Amino acid sequence: MAYPMTGKINPAAFCQSKPLLGEAVRQAHQNYQAPYRLCLMGGLAALSSAAQSLADVVMPYGAKVPTSLSLVGIALSGERKSTVERRFMKEIKALDDNIEEEHGSNLADYRLKMLEWKSRKKQLEKQLVKSGGDDHELTSIREELRELLATEPTKPQRAKLVYEDISPMAMLNALNETGVGTLVSSEGGIIVDGKSFDAVPHLNSLWSGDKVSVARVGKPSLNISDARLTVSIMLQPEIFKPHTDKKGEKVRGSGHWARYLVFNPVSTQGDRLSMYQANSWEHLEAFDRRIREILSKARMARVVGDVEREEIRFAEEAAAEWYKLADRIEIAIRSGGEFEKASDHASKLGENIARVAALLHYFEGDGDVISVETLNVAADICAECSHDFLQLFVPPPEEVRDAVELDKLINRMRDDGLRFIRRTYLHKRCPNAQRTGGRFFRALDVLLREGVIRSYVDMSNAQCLDLCPLLPLPWGVQNGHH
């Protein structure tokens, strides 16, 4: 079955359709020469982080869900993951620094007020003890004490937005206070290692916008409701790999990774030449300005308190188009379909498309409702992430992977001018791992079935291969002789 959604992202078309985000991603890719999709991930993480407390998306079938995204990028060391992440999160982290300064000042005021309050409380308690049997004095002191207890200073709430390299369980503690946050790591090992994933069921609930209750030994339990959490982690392939094999089955089985948009881009290392850099930043600066606008609105909402989130809805035509996409994804779960072995991922894909569409719509200021054009851009972004998810979590069978490696060897032979070779010649030169257990022959069968090569028998009855099957065969070979 063909892939159920649209094709790859076209950067030029993306810039034309969604200029604020598209141009910023293109400029970051050009100037930092980091993989394009790593830059796109950075942009989406910033959008989700800034807008999640202000807007929800209403699905075409009526359910209201968060716009928060969970993103994971897999890239080698030296791909400039940290640089890209820092650049796109720049304004959010700057606001965090201001909030932290304010919090420090508010905390100092609170401690001073608390000292005064405790001192007055102590005085009244002493007076209460000394009052003896005087009912009038006792009543007066009790009333004053009651009033004082009602005015106990409130500890200022930490309003931090971005949490870097903390465990998910610590993140839950923070969300219990703030109700909104972003878990970011450009070296995400700390998040996927050790006991961190004890918090997986709770992170799953947060993604869905559900209430989270966490019982803790010797501490008050956490009761988090209506919180919003963006997750953006970048990992090296060797750190992420255990989560795609049998060791990671428990986490995959919980549906955790199915909620993520996966970015596994082709490396740019070796091609990052200074001649390609533009060193102009106007589009990234425009991106920053829009993020600042959104953050200013989010901060005002926090001050006012209890502000209803904006409900982003689909235009009628876009809703109809979303249903078509959802049906194609559902059909692809069938036997032989693209998502036959990734039904967990498929079940969340339609919602992820809607979340990305809502964020693009909100960020770009695209009118009242999500258009078909915005939905299609979101579908393209998620299609590439879906492709990466399948590559990592549902790798092709061994013989197909071996056939890919064997094809590389055959291409080198073609480059050396070879066309007709004996099968034994190829067998002797194939990758070591393919020389036992019949792996070479199974890989060869795949290439023969796909028409990459064709076989024939020469005059001495030896099994031979034609490496250029689209070219006409010489007369002798056509007749079974060479």
Walk me through the structure.
- By secondary structure, the chain is an alpha/beta fold.
- It folds into 2 domains: 11-97 and 158-393, Rossmann fold; 398-478, Arc Repressor Mutant, subunit A (Orthogonal Bundle).
- 54% of the residues lie in helices and 12% in strands.
- It has 19 helices and 13 strands.
- The strands form 4 sheets. A 5-stranded parallel beta sheet has the order 4-5-8-3-9, sandwiched between helices.
- Helix 3 packs across helix 14, helix 5 packs parallel to helix 12 and helix 13 packs antiparallel against helix 14.
Task: Please give the structural blueprint.
Layout: H1 11-17, H2 19-32, H3 36-51, E1 55-58, E2 64-66, E3 70-74, H4 81-88, H5 90-130, H6 135-150, E4 162-164, H7 168-178, E5 180-185, H8 189-192, H9 200-208, E6 212-216, E7 219-224, E8 228-235, H10 237-240, H11 249-253, E9 260-263, H12 282-304, E10 310-312, H13 316-331, H14 343-364, H15 372-393, H16 398-415, E11 420-422, H17 423-429, H18 439-449, E12 454-457, E13 463-466, H19 475-478
Parallel strand pairs: 1-10, 3-8, 3-9, 4-5, 5-8
Antiparallel strand pairs: 1-2, 6-7, 11-13, 12-13
